[in-house]
Design goal:
The structure holds two protein chains of two kinds. Chain A has one domain. Chain A has ten helices and no strands. The longest helix of chain A has 30 residues. Chain B is globular, with a radius of gyration of 22 Å. Classes of the chains: A mainly alpha, B alpha/beta.
Protein backbone atom coordinates (compact mmCIF):
# COMPACT_ATOMS: atom_id res chain seq x y z
CA UNK A 1 0.00 0.00 0.00
CA UNK A 2 1.29 3.44 -0.88
CA UNK A 3 1.22 6.28 1.64
CA UNK A 4 -1.73 7.77 -0.23
CA UNK A 5 -3.65 4.52 0.04
CA UNK A 6 -2.79 4.21 3.73
CA UNK A 7 -4.13 7.69 4.38
CA UNK A 8 -7.27 6.93 2.40
CA UNK A 9 -7.83 3.73 4.38
CA UNK A 10 -7.34 5.55 7.66
CA UNK A 11 -9.77 8.33 6.75
CA UNK A 12 -12.38 5.90 5.43
CA UNK A 13 -12.21 3.86 8.65
CA UNK A 14 -12.59 7.08 10.65
CA UNK A 15 -15.56 8.14 8.52
CA UNK A 16 -17.16 4.72 8.78
CA UNK A 17 -16.96 4.45 12.57
CA UNK A 18 -17.07 8.15 13.46
CA UNK A 19 -19.27 10.05 11.05
CA UNK A 20 -21.78 7.43 9.86
CA UNK A 21 -22.93 6.47 13.40
CA UNK A 22 -23.65 10.15 14.13
CA UNK A 23 -26.22 9.97 11.36
CA UNK A 24 -27.64 6.54 12.10
CA UNK A 25 -27.31 6.50 15.89
CA UNK A 26 -27.46 10.13 17.08
CA UNK A 27 -28.65 9.19 20.57
CA UNK A 28 -25.28 7.58 21.27
CA UNK A 29 -23.75 11.05 21.13
CA UNK A 30 -25.49 11.86 24.40
CA UNK A 31 -23.87 8.85 26.06
CA UNK A 32 -20.43 10.34 25.32
CA UNK A 33 -21.38 13.33 27.42
CA UNK A 34 -23.21 11.52 30.19
CA UNK A 35 -20.33 10.65 32.55
CA UNK A 36 -18.21 13.80 32.09
CA UNK A 37 -21.21 16.09 32.60
CA UNK A 38 -22.45 14.07 35.57
CA UNK A 39 -19.11 14.48 37.34
CA UNK A 40 -19.02 18.16 36.45
CA UNK A 41 -22.51 18.61 37.85
CA UNK A 42 -21.71 16.73 41.04
CA UNK A 43 -18.38 18.48 41.68
CA UNK A 44 -19.85 21.92 40.98
CA UNK A 45 -22.91 21.43 43.18
CA UNK A 46 -20.95 19.83 46.02
CA UNK A 47 -18.37 22.62 46.03
CA UNK A 48 -20.88 25.43 45.72
CA UNK A 49 -19.42 26.34 42.33
CA UNK A 50 -15.86 26.68 43.57
CA UNK A 51 -14.64 23.67 41.56
CA UNK A 52 -16.51 24.52 38.35
CA UNK A 53 -13.33 25.09 36.32
CA UNK A 54 -11.72 21.97 37.78
CA UNK A 55 -14.82 20.11 36.68
CA UNK A 56 -14.57 21.53 33.16
CA UNK A 57 -10.90 20.51 32.91
CA UNK A 58 -11.81 17.09 34.28
CA UNK A 59 -14.68 16.81 31.81
CA UNK A 60 -12.33 17.45 28.91
CA UNK A 61 -9.90 14.81 30.12
CA UNK A 62 -12.64 12.26 30.81
CA UNK A 63 -14.30 12.87 27.43
CA UNK A 64 -11.06 12.14 25.60
CA UNK A 65 -10.13 9.32 27.95
CA UNK A 66 -13.49 7.76 27.19
CA UNK A 67 -12.29 7.45 23.61
CA UNK A 68 -9.95 4.70 24.79
CA UNK A 69 -12.71 2.81 26.57
CA UNK A 70 -15.08 3.28 23.62
CA UNK A 71 -12.33 2.07 21.31
CA UNK A 72 -11.77 -0.94 23.53
CA UNK A 73 -15.46 -1.82 23.53
CA UNK A 74 -15.94 -1.19 19.81
CA UNK A 75 -12.87 -3.14 18.80
CA UNK A 76 -13.69 -6.07 21.06
CA UNK A 77 -17.19 -6.15 19.62
CA UNK A 78 -15.97 -5.89 16.04
CA UNK A 79 -13.32 -8.53 16.64
CA UNK A 80 -15.20 -11.11 18.69
CA UNK A 81 -18.83 -10.72 17.72
CA UNK A 82 -18.84 -9.35 14.18
CA UNK A 83 -15.46 -10.78 13.03
CA UNK A 84 -14.88 -7.47 11.29
CA UNK A 85 -11.25 -7.38 12.42
CA UNK A 86 -10.69 -10.73 10.68
CA UNK A 87 -12.17 -9.25 7.50
CA UNK A 88 -9.67 -6.40 7.69
CA UNK A 89 -6.73 -8.61 8.70
CA UNK A 90 -7.25 -10.51 5.44
CA UNK A 91 -6.74 -7.33 3.42
CA UNK A 92 -3.92 -4.92 2.61
CA UNK A 93 -4.86 -2.72 5.61
CA UNK A 94 -2.13 -2.82 8.27
CA UNK A 95 -2.78 -2.90 12.01
CA UNK A 96 -1.53 0.66 12.75
CA UNK A 97 -3.85 2.04 10.04
CA UNK A 98 -6.79 0.12 11.49
CA UNK A 99 -6.08 1.33 15.01
CA UNK A 100 -5.41 4.92 13.95
CA UNK A 101 -8.56 4.96 11.84
CA UNK A 102 -10.68 3.75 14.74
CA UNK A 103 -8.97 6.07 17.21
CA UNK A 104 -9.67 9.00 14.88
CA UNK A 105 -13.26 7.86 14.51
CA UNK A 106 -13.73 7.90 18.27
CA UNK A 107 -12.20 11.37 18.41
CA UNK A 108 -14.59 12.58 15.72
CA UNK A 109 -17.48 11.04 17.61
CA UNK A 110 -16.47 12.86 20.80
CA UNK A 111 -16.16 16.29 19.13
CA UNK A 112 -19.73 17.35 20.00
CA UNK A 113 -19.03 16.44 23.65
CA UNK A 114 -15.72 18.29 23.66
CA UNK A 115 -17.41 21.29 22.09
CA UNK A 116 -19.72 21.53 25.11
CA UNK A 117 -16.73 21.68 27.48
CA UNK A 118 -14.87 24.15 25.28
CA UNK A 119 -17.88 26.46 25.31
CA UNK A 120 -18.10 26.12 29.10
CA UNK A 121 -14.39 26.90 29.34
CA UNK A 122 -14.71 29.95 27.08
CA UNK A 123 -17.59 31.26 29.20
CA UNK A 124 -15.91 30.72 32.55
CA UNK A 125 -12.17 31.26 32.02
CA UNK A 126 -9.90 33.72 30.21
CA UNK A 127 -9.40 32.49 26.65
CA UNK A 128 -5.81 32.85 25.41
CA UNK A 129 -3.92 31.37 22.52
CA UNK A 130 -1.51 29.64 24.91
CA UNK A 131 -4.39 28.14 26.89
CA UNK A 132 -6.00 26.94 23.66
CA UNK A 133 -2.79 25.35 22.43
CA UNK A 134 -2.25 23.69 25.80
CA UNK A 135 -5.75 22.22 25.76
CA UNK A 136 -5.28 20.91 22.21
CA UNK A 137 -1.85 19.45 23.00
CA UNK A 138 -2.90 17.79 26.25
CA UNK A 139 -6.07 16.29 24.79
CA UNK A 140 -4.14 15.06 21.74
CA UNK A 141 -1.69 13.16 23.96
CA UNK A 142 -4.45 11.76 26.18
CA UNK A 143 -6.20 10.62 23.01
CA UNK A 144 -3.02 8.83 21.90
CA UNK A 145 -2.42 6.89 25.08
CA UNK A 146 -6.05 6.07 25.78
CA UNK A 147 -6.40 4.72 22.23
CA UNK A 148 -3.24 2.61 22.55
CA UNK A 149 -4.46 1.25 25.87
CA UNK A 150 -7.93 0.57 24.48
CA UNK A 151 -6.65 -1.34 21.45
CA UNK A 152 -4.21 -3.42 23.48
CA UNK A 153 -6.88 -4.46 25.98
CA UNK A 154 -9.41 -5.13 23.21
CA UNK A 155 -7.19 -7.71 21.55
CA UNK A 156 -7.00 -9.79 24.71
CA UNK A 157 -10.67 -10.39 25.40
CA UNK A 158 -12.73 -13.09 23.76
CA UNK A 159 -16.01 -11.76 25.13
CA UNK A 160 -17.03 -8.14 24.86
CA UNK A 161 -18.62 -8.26 28.31
CA UNK A 162 -15.17 -8.75 29.84
CA UNK A 163 -14.10 -5.45 28.36
CA UNK A 164 -16.81 -3.60 30.30
CA UNK A 165 -15.13 -4.64 33.55
CA UNK A 166 -11.77 -3.34 32.43
CA UNK A 167 -13.11 -0.17 30.87
CA UNK A 168 -14.81 0.67 34.16
CA UNK A 169 -11.60 0.03 36.08
CA UNK A 170 -9.56 2.06 33.60
CA UNK A 171 -11.99 4.96 33.92
CA UNK A 172 -11.88 4.72 37.68
CA UNK A 173 -8.10 4.53 37.84
CA UNK A 174 -7.40 7.26 35.31
CA UNK A 175 -10.16 9.80 35.71
CA UNK A 176 -12.08 9.47 38.96
CA UNK A 177 -9.44 8.68 41.58
CA UNK A 178 -6.64 10.96 40.24
CA UNK A 179 -7.11 14.70 40.81
CA UNK A 180 -8.69 15.31 37.43
CA UNK A 181 -11.91 16.86 38.71
CA UNK A 182 -10.47 18.47 41.83
CA UNK A 183 -7.17 19.94 43.07
CA UNK A 184 -4.50 17.54 44.25
CA UNK A 185 -4.46 19.33 47.57
CA UNK A 186 -7.82 17.69 48.30
CA UNK A 187 -6.01 14.35 48.57
CA UNK A 188 -4.47 13.64 51.99
CA UNK A 189 -0.67 14.14 51.77
CA UNK A 190 -0.05 10.50 52.74
CA UNK A 191 -1.80 9.21 49.63
CA UNK A 192 -0.82 11.97 47.24
CA UNK A 193 2.00 9.94 45.71
CA UNK A 194 -0.62 7.55 44.31
CA UNK A 195 -2.02 10.34 42.19
CA UNK A 196 1.34 10.84 40.54
CA UNK A 197 1.18 7.28 39.16
CA UNK A 198 -1.59 8.26 36.76
CA UNK A 199 -0.63 10.13 33.58
CA UNK A 200 -3.98 11.88 33.67
CA UNK A 201 -2.85 13.73 36.81
CA UNK A 202 -0.24 15.52 34.70
CA UNK A 203 -2.79 16.21 31.98
CA UNK A 204 -5.08 17.74 34.58
CA UNK A 205 -2.21 19.85 36.03
CA UNK A 206 -1.52 21.30 32.58
CA UNK A 207 -5.19 22.05 31.94
CA UNK A 208 -5.62 23.56 35.38
CA UNK A 209 -2.60 25.75 34.65
CA UNK A 210 -4.07 26.77 31.29
CA UNK A 211 -7.36 27.64 33.01
CA UNK A 212 -5.49 29.90 35.46
CA UNK A 213 -6.37 27.70 38.43
CA UNK A 214 -2.74 27.31 39.48
CA UNK A 215 0.53 28.83 38.52
CA UNK A 216 2.78 26.35 36.75
CA UNK A 217 6.49 27.16 36.91
CA UNK A 218 8.37 26.31 33.70
CA UNK A 219 10.21 23.43 35.35
CA UNK A 220 6.96 21.88 36.64
CA UNK A 221 5.34 22.37 33.24
CA UNK A 222 8.22 20.60 31.53
CA UNK A 223 7.96 17.72 33.98
CA UNK A 224 4.19 17.47 33.38
CA UNK A 225 4.61 17.46 29.61
CA UNK A 226 7.54 15.05 29.85
CA UNK A 227 5.68 12.51 31.98
CA UNK A 228 2.57 12.76 29.83
CA UNK A 229 4.51 12.25 26.61
CA UNK A 230 6.65 9.45 28.08
CA UNK A 231 3.56 7.61 29.33
CA UNK A 232 1.94 7.94 25.91
CA UNK A 233 5.02 6.71 24.07
CA UNK A 234 5.29 3.79 26.48
CA UNK A 235 1.67 2.80 25.94
CA UNK A 236 2.00 3.13 22.17
CA UNK A 237 5.10 0.91 22.23
CA UNK A 238 3.32 -1.64 24.41
CA UNK A 239 0.37 -1.55 22.00
CA UNK A 240 2.73 -2.13 19.07
CA UNK A 241 4.44 -5.03 20.80
CA UNK A 242 1.59 -6.74 22.58
CA UNK A 243 -1.54 -6.11 20.57
CA UNK A 244 -2.63 -9.13 18.57
CA UNK A 245 -3.42 -8.71 14.90
CA UNK A 246 -2.97 -12.35 13.92
CA UNK A 247 -4.17 -14.79 16.58
CA UNK A 248 -1.40 -16.98 18.02
CA UNK B 1 2.33 -20.64 -12.30
CA UNK B 2 2.21 -20.77 -8.48
CA UNK B 3 -0.61 -22.53 -6.70
CA UNK B 4 -3.30 -20.34 -5.17
CA UNK B 5 -2.79 -22.00 -1.79
CA UNK B 6 -0.25 -24.66 -0.91
CA UNK B 7 -0.06 -26.25 2.53
CA UNK B 8 2.68 -28.63 3.59
CA UNK B 9 2.54 -30.60 6.82
CA UNK B 10 0.34 -27.86 8.22
CA UNK B 11 -0.60 -28.41 11.85
CA UNK B 12 -2.42 -26.41 14.46
CA UNK B 13 -2.89 -27.27 18.09
CA UNK B 14 -4.96 -25.06 20.37
CA UNK B 15 -4.03 -24.97 24.02
CA UNK B 16 -6.54 -23.71 26.56
CA UNK B 17 -6.11 -24.09 30.31
CA UNK B 18 -3.36 -26.65 29.81
CA UNK B 19 -5.52 -28.81 27.52
CA UNK B 20 -4.42 -29.30 23.93
CA UNK B 21 -6.73 -29.85 20.99
CA UNK B 22 -5.38 -30.80 17.60
CA UNK B 23 -7.30 -28.90 14.91
CA UNK B 24 -5.04 -29.73 11.96
CA UNK B 25 -2.53 -32.57 11.72
CA UNK B 26 0.02 -32.57 8.91
CA UNK B 27 -2.32 -31.31 6.22
CA UNK B 28 -0.98 -31.22 2.67
CA UNK B 29 -3.13 -29.43 0.14
CA UNK B 30 -2.39 -27.94 -3.26
CA UNK B 31 -5.11 -25.60 -4.47
CA UNK B 32 -4.79 -24.47 -8.07
CA UNK B 33 -5.63 -20.99 -9.25
CA UNK B 34 -8.77 -19.95 -11.10
CA UNK B 35 -11.11 -22.46 -9.51
CA UNK B 36 -13.42 -23.03 -6.60
CA UNK B 37 -11.86 -25.44 -4.13
CA UNK B 38 -14.24 -26.89 -1.58
CA UNK B 39 -13.41 -27.86 1.96
CA UNK B 40 -16.03 -30.07 3.50
CA UNK B 41 -16.27 -31.78 6.83
CA UNK B 42 -18.38 -31.75 9.93
CA UNK B 43 -18.11 -29.18 12.71
CA UNK B 44 -14.68 -29.21 14.31
CA UNK B 45 -13.06 -31.02 11.39
CA UNK B 46 -10.50 -28.22 10.90
CA UNK B 47 -12.00 -26.33 7.95
CA UNK B 48 -12.17 -22.93 9.61
CA UNK B 49 -8.74 -23.35 11.17
CA UNK B 50 -7.29 -24.04 7.72
CA UNK B 51 -9.05 -21.02 6.22
CA UNK B 52 -8.01 -18.72 9.07
CA UNK B 53 -4.36 -19.72 8.74
CA UNK B 54 -4.45 -19.22 4.98
CA UNK B 55 -6.15 -15.86 5.39
CA UNK B 56 -3.34 -14.74 7.76
CA UNK B 57 -5.72 -14.49 10.72
CA UNK B 58 -4.21 -17.34 12.72
CA UNK B 59 -0.68 -18.64 13.14
CA UNK B 60 -0.03 -22.36 12.53
CA UNK B 61 1.75 -24.49 15.11
CA UNK B 62 4.00 -26.06 12.47
CA UNK B 63 4.26 -26.62 8.74
CA UNK B 64 4.01 -24.07 5.97
CA UNK B 65 1.29 -22.52 3.89
CA UNK B 66 1.67 -20.13 1.00
CA UNK B 67 -0.72 -18.03 -1.06
CA UNK B 68 0.25 -17.40 -4.68
CA UNK B 69 3.77 -18.47 -3.77
CA UNK B 70 4.10 -16.15 -0.77
CA UNK B 71 4.55 -17.66 2.68
CA UNK B 72 1.75 -16.47 4.95
CA UNK B 73 4.04 -16.14 7.97
CA UNK B 74 7.12 -14.52 6.45
CA UNK B 75 5.53 -12.61 3.55
CA UNK B 76 2.30 -11.67 5.26
CA UNK B 77 2.05 -8.19 3.81
CA UNK B 78 2.38 -9.50 0.27
CA UNK B 79 -0.20 -12.22 0.90
CA UNK B 80 -2.71 -9.70 2.26
CA UNK B 81 -2.64 -7.66 -0.92
CA UNK B 82 -3.98 -10.70 -2.81
CA UNK B 83 -6.68 -12.00 -0.49
CA UNK B 84 -10.12 -11.24 0.92
CA UNK B 85 -12.16 -13.24 3.41
CA UNK B 86 -15.65 -13.72 4.76
CA UNK B 87 -15.11 -15.32 8.16
CA UNK B 88 -17.51 -17.88 9.55
CA UNK B 89 -20.34 -16.26 11.53
CA UNK B 90 -19.18 -12.79 10.55
CA UNK B 91 -21.79 -10.05 10.51
CA UNK B 92 -21.76 -6.63 8.88
CA UNK B 93 -21.38 -3.44 10.91
CA UNK B 94 -24.98 -2.78 11.93
CA UNK B 95 -24.96 0.99 11.61
CA UNK B 96 -24.04 1.00 7.91
CA UNK B 97 -26.42 0.62 5.03
CA UNK B 98 -25.74 -2.05 2.42
CA UNK B 99 -24.23 0.36 -0.08
CA UNK B 100 -21.88 1.87 2.54
CA UNK B 101 -20.86 -1.57 3.74
CA UNK B 102 -19.57 -2.63 0.33
CA UNK B 103 -18.28 0.74 -0.86
CA UNK B 104 -16.42 1.56 2.37
CA UNK B 105 -14.89 -1.91 2.52
CA UNK B 106 -13.50 -1.47 -0.98
CA UNK B 107 -12.11 2.00 -0.33
CA UNK B 108 -10.67 0.92 3.03
CA UNK B 109 -8.82 -1.79 1.10
CA UNK B 110 -7.33 1.03 -0.95
CA UNK B 111 -9.47 0.87 -4.08
CA UNK B 112 -9.95 4.03 -6.12
CA UNK B 113 -13.33 5.59 -5.15
CA UNK B 114 -14.67 5.62 -8.72
CA UNK B 115 -13.73 1.99 -9.22
CA UNK B 116 -15.23 1.14 -5.84
CA UNK B 117 -18.48 2.88 -6.77
CA UNK B 118 -18.71 1.00 -10.07
CA UNK B 119 -17.98 -2.36 -8.46
CA UNK B 120 -20.40 -1.69 -5.59
CA UNK B 121 -23.25 -0.94 -7.97
CA UNK B 122 -22.46 -4.02 -10.05
CA UNK B 123 -22.28 -6.48 -7.17
CA UNK B 124 -25.44 -5.18 -5.50
CA UNK B 125 -27.29 -5.70 -8.77
CA UNK B 126 -25.74 -9.11 -9.24
CA UNK B 127 -26.63 -10.40 -5.78
CA UNK B 128 -30.13 -8.97 -5.72
CA UNK B 129 -29.30 -6.34 -3.12
CA UNK B 130 -29.92 -3.22 -5.19
CA UNK B 131 -33.43 -2.73 -3.82
CA UNK B 132 -32.12 -2.63 -0.22
CA UNK B 133 -28.93 -0.68 -0.88
CA UNK B 134 -29.99 2.21 1.38
CA UNK B 135 -31.36 -0.03 4.14
CA UNK B 136 -29.42 -0.35 7.36
CA UNK B 137 -27.98 -3.84 7.53
CA UNK B 138 -29.48 -4.08 11.01
CA UNK B 139 -32.92 -4.01 9.40
CA UNK B 140 -32.21 -6.88 7.00
CA UNK B 141 -32.89 -10.57 7.46
CA UNK B 142 -30.00 -12.81 8.47
CA UNK B 143 -29.76 -14.16 4.94
CA UNK B 144 -29.58 -10.70 3.39
CA UNK B 145 -26.84 -9.69 5.83
CA UNK B 146 -24.84 -12.75 4.88
CA UNK B 147 -25.29 -11.91 1.22
CA UNK B 148 -24.05 -8.39 1.90
CA UNK B 149 -20.90 -9.83 3.49
CA UNK B 150 -20.29 -12.01 0.45
CA UNK B 151 -20.90 -9.01 -1.81
CA UNK B 152 -18.08 -7.14 -0.07
CA UNK B 153 -15.38 -9.63 -0.91
CA UNK B 154 -16.68 -10.57 -4.34
CA UNK B 155 -16.56 -6.88 -5.29
CA UNK B 156 -12.93 -6.62 -4.19
CA UNK B 157 -9.97 -7.00 -6.49
CA UNK B 158 -8.50 -9.84 -4.40
CA UNK B 159 -7.27 -12.81 -6.38
CA UNK B 160 -7.82 -15.44 -3.70
CA UNK B 161 -11.11 -15.39 -1.78
CA UNK B 162 -11.61 -17.31 1.46
CA UNK B 163 -15.32 -17.90 1.97
CA UNK B 164 -16.07 -19.70 5.22
CA UNK B 165 -19.64 -21.00 4.99
CA UNK B 166 -20.78 -18.06 2.90
CA UNK B 167 -24.31 -19.24 2.25
CA UNK B 168 -25.31 -20.36 5.72
CA UNK B 169 -28.77 -19.02 6.44
CA UNK B 170 -29.61 -18.17 2.84
CA UNK B 171 -32.76 -19.40 1.15
CA UNK B 172 -32.34 -21.63 -1.94
CA UNK B 173 -32.84 -18.75 -4.37
CA UNK B 174 -30.32 -16.52 -2.60
CA UNK B 175 -27.83 -19.36 -2.47
CA UNK B 176 -28.03 -19.73 -6.21
CA UNK B 177 -27.47 -16.00 -6.67
CA UNK B 178 -24.34 -16.29 -4.57
CA UNK B 179 -23.26 -19.36 -6.53
CA UNK B 180 -23.66 -17.44 -9.77
CA UNK B 181 -21.56 -14.58 -8.41
CA UNK B 182 -18.87 -17.01 -7.26
CA UNK B 183 -18.82 -18.64 -10.68
CA UNK B 184 -18.45 -15.21 -12.27
CA UNK B 185 -15.57 -14.46 -9.89
CA UNK B 186 -13.66 -17.53 -11.00
CA UNK B 187 -14.47 -16.59 -14.56
CA UNK B 188 -12.33 -13.52 -13.88
CA UNK B 189 -9.46 -15.87 -13.03
CA UNK B 190 -9.81 -15.67 -9.29
CA UNK B 191 -9.60 -18.55 -6.84
CA UNK B 192 -12.21 -19.29 -4.20
CA UNK B 193 -11.52 -21.46 -1.18
CA UNK B 194 -14.96 -22.40 0.02
CA UNK B 195 -15.99 -24.19 3.18
CA UNK B 196 -19.54 -25.39 3.38
CA UNK B 197 -21.84 -27.80 5.11
CA UNK B 198 -24.00 -27.98 2.01
CA UNK B 199 -22.61 -30.85 -0.01
CA UNK B 200 -24.76 -29.98 -3.00
CA UNK B 201 -23.12 -26.56 -2.93
CA UNK B 202 -19.64 -28.04 -2.73
CA UNK B 203 -20.43 -30.33 -5.63
CA UNK B 204 -22.10 -27.65 -7.72
CA UNK B 205 -19.30 -25.11 -7.33
CA UNK B 206 -16.05 -26.92 -6.66
CA UNK B 207 -13.72 -28.30 -9.27
CA UNK B 208 -11.83 -30.02 -6.48
CA UNK B 209 -12.72 -30.97 -2.93
CA UNK B 210 -11.05 -32.03 0.26
CA UNK B 211 -12.90 -33.79 3.01
CA UNK B 212 -11.42 -33.00 6.40
CA UNK B 213 -12.06 -35.09 9.45
CA UNK B 214 -10.21 -34.94 12.73
CA UNK B 215 -7.83 -32.35 11.32
CA UNK B 216 -6.71 -34.60 8.48
CA UNK B 217 -7.52 -34.83 4.79
CA UNK B 218 -9.53 -38.02 4.32
CA UNK B 219 -10.45 -37.57 0.66
CA UNK B 220 -9.19 -35.19 -2.00
CA UNK B 221 -9.93 -34.78 -5.68
CA UNK B 222 -12.56 -33.64 -8.14
CA UNK B 223 -16.11 -34.79 -7.40
CA UNK B 224 -15.81 -37.25 -10.29
CA UNK B 225 -12.48 -38.60 -9.02
CA UNK B 226 -13.92 -39.05 -5.58
CA UNK B 227 -16.84 -40.97 -7.03
CA UNK B 228 -14.47 -43.10 -9.13
CA UNK B 229 -12.72 -44.18 -5.96
CA UNK B 230 -15.93 -45.52 -4.53
CA UNK B 231 -16.10 -49.26 -4.93
CA UNK B 232 -19.89 -49.35 -4.97
CA UNK B 233 -20.77 -46.30 -7.04
CA UNK B 234 -24.57 -46.79 -7.24
CA UNK B 235 -27.25 -46.15 -4.68
CA UNK B 236 -30.58 -47.96 -4.84
CA UNK B 237 -33.43 -47.06 -2.53
CA UNK B 238 -35.98 -49.85 -2.20
CA UNK B 239 -39.20 -49.59 -0.25
CA UNK B 240 -41.78 -52.32 0.39
CA UNK B 241 -41.87 -56.07 -0.32
CA UNK B 242 -38.12 -56.83 -0.18
CA UNK B 243 -36.43 -57.34 3.17
CA UNK B 244 -32.84 -56.81 4.26
CA UNK B 245 -31.99 -60.49 3.65
CA UNK B 246 -33.19 -60.17 0.04
CA UNK B 247 -30.97 -57.16 -0.56
CA UNK B 248 -27.71 -58.11 1.14
CA UNK B 249 -26.42 -60.28 -1.73
CA UNK B 250 -26.35 -57.20 -3.96
CA UNK B 251 -24.33 -54.79 -1.87
CA UNK B 252 -24.07 -52.87 1.40
CA UNK B 253 -27.46 -52.32 2.97
CA UNK B 254 -28.55 -49.73 5.47
CA UNK B 255 -31.98 -48.76 6.74
CA UNK B 256 -33.56 -45.51 5.67
CA UNK B 257 -36.98 -44.10 6.39
CA UNK B 258 -39.56 -46.37 4.75
CA UNK B 259 -37.11 -48.84 3.24
CA UNK B 260 -33.49 -49.65 2.58
CA UNK B 261 -30.53 -47.96 0.90
CA UNK B 262 -28.20 -50.26 -0.98
CA UNK B 263 -24.76 -49.31 -2.29
CA UNK B 264 -23.75 -51.60 -5.12
CA UNK B 265 -21.55 -52.04 -8.18
CA UNK B 266 -23.12 -51.44 -11.57
CA UNK B 267 -24.20 -54.97 -12.50
CA UNK B 268 -25.71 -55.95 -9.12
CA UNK B 269 -27.38 -52.55 -9.00
CA UNK B 270 -29.19 -53.22 -12.30
CA UNK B 271 -30.16 -56.71 -11.21
CA UNK B 272 -31.53 -55.45 -7.94
CA UNK B 273 -33.51 -52.71 -9.63
CA UNK B 274 -35.08 -55.23 -12.03
CA UNK B 275 -35.86 -57.59 -9.15
CA UNK B 276 -37.48 -54.83 -7.12
CA UNK B 277 -39.58 -53.71 -10.08
CA UNK B 278 -40.69 -57.25 -10.82
CA UNK B 279 -41.82 -57.63 -7.19
CA UNK B 280 -43.77 -54.40 -7.35
CA UNK B 281 -41.47 -52.53 -4.93
CA UNK B 282 -40.77 -48.82 -5.23
CA UNK B 283 -37.21 -48.32 -6.40
CA UNK B 284 -34.89 -45.49 -7.33
CA UNK B 285 -31.42 -45.97 -8.82
CA UNK B 286 -28.67 -43.41 -9.21
CA UNK B 287 -24.99 -42.67 -8.61
CA UNK B 288 -23.84 -42.21 -5.03
CA UNK B 289 -23.98 -38.64 -3.84
CA UNK B 290 -21.26 -36.71 -2.14
CA UNK B 291 -23.38 -36.87 0.96
CA UNK B 292 -23.33 -40.68 0.86
CA UNK B 293 -19.55 -40.64 0.66
CA UNK B 294 -19.29 -37.99 3.35
CA UNK B 295 -21.44 -39.99 5.74
CA UNK B 296 -19.52 -43.18 5.04
CA UNK B 297 -16.10 -41.63 5.52
CA UNK B 298 -16.96 -39.48 8.48
CA UNK B 299 -19.05 -42.19 10.06
CA UNK B 300 -16.21 -44.67 9.80
CA UNK B 301 -13.74 -42.13 11.10
CA UNK B 302 -15.92 -41.51 14.11
CA UNK B 303 -16.31 -45.23 14.74
CA UNK B 304 -12.71 -46.26 14.44
CA UNK B 305 -10.71 -43.12 13.71
CA UNK B 306 -9.60 -45.05 10.66
CA UNK B 307 -8.89 -42.99 7.59
CA UNK B 308 -9.21 -44.36 4.11
CA UNK B 309 -11.13 -44.41 0.93
CA UNK B 310 -14.85 -44.60 0.84
CA UNK B 311 -16.15 -48.06 0.26
CA UNK B 312 -19.79 -47.24 -0.09
Amino acid sequence: MSERHRLRSLLRLAYMNGVVPMRTQPLYLLSVLASPLSFLFFVTIASGGVLLLYGIAGGMVLTVLSIGTSLQTDMSHYRSDLKFQDVIVASPVEAPIYVAGFALSELIYSIPGLAVFIVLWAINAPVTLMAGLTIVGVLFIVWGFSSALGFTLATYFADVRETFVFSSLVSLGLSVLPPVYYPITSIPATFRWLAYLSPTTYAAFLLQGAFGLKSVPLSDGLVDWGVLIAASVALLVIAGLKARWRDP
Amino acid sequence: MPLAVEARALSKTYTHSGKSTVALANVDLAIPTGRVYGLIGRNGAGKTTFVRIGATQLAPTSGTISVLGHDVMTETREVRTHIAAVPQESRPLYFLNVDELVYLYLTIRGMDPRDARRRTNAILDELGLASVRKSLVNHLSGGMRRRAMVAMVLASDAEVLFLDEPTTGLDPLARREVWAAIRRAIGDGRTVLLTTHYLDEAEALSSRLALLEGGQVRLEGSPAEIRDRVRQPYRIVVSGVLGRADLEPYGTVSSVEGGYLVFAKESPARELAQLALSKGAKVSLGPVTLEDIFLQVVGRAIDSDDAGEAEA
